[in-house]
Amino acid sequence: MVRRWCIPLAGAALVVGSAAASAPAAAAGRAPHAPAAVHQVRPGGRVIRPGGPLTERGRPRSQHLSTNWSGYAASGSFTSVSANWTEPTGHCTSATRYSAFWVGLDGWTSNPVEQTGSEVDCSGGSPAYYSWYEMYPAYPHYFRNTVRPGDKFFGSVTYTGGGSYTLVLQDITQGWKHTVNKTRNGAPNSSAEVITEAPFGVSVLPLADFGTVNFSNATANGSPIGNARPVQVNMVDNSGRLKDQTSSLSGGGSFSDTWLRAS
Question: CATH number of 38-51+59-243: 3.40.50.2300, 2.60.120.260, 3.30.70.100, 2.60.120.700?
Answer without folding.
Answer: 2.60.120.700
